[in-house]
Design goal:
The protein is 52% helix and 7% strand. The protein is an alpha/beta fold. The protein has an eight-stranded mixed β-sheet, sandwiched between helices. The longest helix has 33 residues. It is globular and about 80 Å long.
């Protein structure tokens, strides 16, 4: 009896399309779904006549796999533990379990340890590209038990997207939760990119009074600039898409956005690591703000917004928006890579930032020509602390900073919210400031809580406390950073 090269648990959109992708590359795939009717539907539908083996239990799935067994789960994050517990009685030591869903990397760290202690191997892999990417080639970010990689690599490399130079958008990320962490940061950057594009759209609509067709032309033109990317391409397509009555469909879509949690996790991780992920944080909060639609409608009736007429050069302002979008996009990636740099130290991962940028060049949602520049930056200087210090990105920001400030000022002057563009600018101004007002902040903390401070005229690490009121005493609090 012929056995399958790999098993797939979960036949929803991603699991089904990944299975089709694997089979198209010459692999035999055993498929299983908790609701077994889905197995029948798949075997009689898209899978009919192809190299698939339909299975109806975990035992049957395991029996139909070559050793070491490789089983990939494409299920919701909240049932991964349950699936693992039901699956492992049918596995043998050395078998490999793969989680390709959007699991929290802390769970992946725990699961890797748990399965390795039982003699199995575990891989937590980020999978980016959505429905189309899963079918035609996603970006894959695997991490976990390195011993499993040699067995999984042929499949993952074959099904992954290929960059323009033919390189697979897939590679080993690191131990335990590294793969899911990098996917989480990818999604955080995705939140930032999408919010920045939406703000550019809103500025054109509200400040310049442009309609969807005019904006479609602008975004189409931007596809041939430094902004060339998948998200810019689909934005142009969306703006040009007409409803059945011939009017732009985008104008009829309710302005409330959903989210699945990875952006929130990115923000939480940044807070835990002490990394100022301001732009991505604002992108998450912008979605939260959009969700309270009824409150916003009520509030809009309480505060009259007097329209400010735009009297400038329309085409010049559109170009300013493009430059501001590019500069802010650099900050989005700079913050994301700074978070990965901090996590590398915290979790003892050996992340290769240039390689990660290469993996994102194809298949994934944030794929863009821009990533080649990030790859070059980290290959030229593996110890680069922040992308804004790379010569290329320094030149890009310096050349666009004036336009960026014009756009931020216009958003405030016209009352058009652009939190990501503005917070990115504030981050840049803060990061490039030799002195910030934290000296006053430390004085305040020492005044009310005796939290101590350092002095400019003393070595770093030497702390002082002042009895600001004259009756506070000399006892100070322990100095620490949470």
């Amino acid at each position: 009896m012929q056995k399958a090269d790999i098993g797939m648990i979960g036949l929803a959109v991603m699991g089904e399309n990944l299975s089709m992708n694997m089979e198209s590359k010459g692999f035999t795939v055993a498929v299983y779904n908790y609701e077994t009717e889905a197995v029948d539907a798949f075997m009689e539908g898209r899978g009919k006549g192809r190299k698939f083996i339909g299975t109806y239990s975990y035992a049957e799935l395991a029996e139909n796999l070559t050793k070491p067994r490789k089983v990939m789960m494409m299920v919701k994050a909240d049932v991964v533990d349950l699936v693992i517990e039901q699956l492992i009685p049918h596995l043998k030591p050395g078998d490999i379990v793969i989680d390709g869903g959007n699991s929290n990397f802390h769970d992946t760290i725990r699961r890797t340890k748990y399965l390795e202690e039982k003699g199995f191997y575990f891989i937590g892999s980020g999978v980016s590209g959505g429905e189309e990417g899963a079918l035609k080639g996603p970006a894959l970010m695997p991490g976990g038990s390195y011993e499993a990689w040699e067995h999984v690599a042929p499949v993952f490399t074959a099904i992954s997207a290929k960059a323009g130079d033919g390189e697979p958008c897939c590679g080993w990320i690191g131990s335990d939760g590294a793969g899911h962490f990098v996917k989480m940061v990818h999604n955080g950057i995705e939140y930032g990119d999408m919010q920045l594009i939406c703000e550019a759209y809103l500025l054109m609509r509200e400040v310049l009074g442009m309609d969807a067709d005019e904006m479609q032309a602008v975004f189409s033109a931007w596809k041939d600039t430094e902004l060339k990317s998948y998200l810019i391409e689909i934005t142009a397509d969306i703006l040009g898409y007409k409803d059945t009555d011939g009017t732009p469909l985008v104008d009829k879509i309710l302005d409330t956005a959903g989210q699945k949690g990875t952006g929130k996790w990115t923000g939480i991780s940044a807070l835990q690591e002490g990394v100022p992920l301001t732009l991505i944080g604002e992108a998450v909060f912008a979605r939260c703000l959009s969700a309270i639609k009824d409150e916003r409608v009520t509030a809009s009736k309480e505060y009259e917004k007097k329209p400010v007429v735009f009297n400038g050069d329309k085409q010049a302002f559109i170009e300013d928006i493009r430059k501001a979008l590019y500069a802010a996009k650099i900050i989005s990636y700079a913050q994301g890579f700074s978070l990965m740099r901090a996590a590398t130290e915290s979790y003892q991962w050996d992340l290769s930032y240039g390689s990660i940028a290469m993996m994102w060049r194809g298949g994934c949602i944030i794929r863009s020509a821009f990533l080649d520049k990030i790859k070059d930056a980290y290959r030229n200087n593996p110890d680069l602390s922040n992308l804004v210090l790379d010569p290329y990105f320094k030149g890009a920001i310096s050349g666009n900073i004036g336009a960026w400030r014009n756009v931020a000022a216009a958003s405030i002057r016209h009352g058009v919210p652009a939190p990501a563009i503005c917070s990115a600018l504030n981050y840049f101004d803060g990061y490039t400031s030799e002195r910030l007002p934290a000296n006053l902040l430390q004085a305040q903390r020492d005044y009310f809580g005796a939290h101590t401070y350092e002095r400019l005229d003393s070595p770093r690490g030497k702390f002082f406390h002042t009895d600001w009121t004259g009756h506070g005493g000399k006892t100070s609090s322990t100095t620490y950073n949470a």
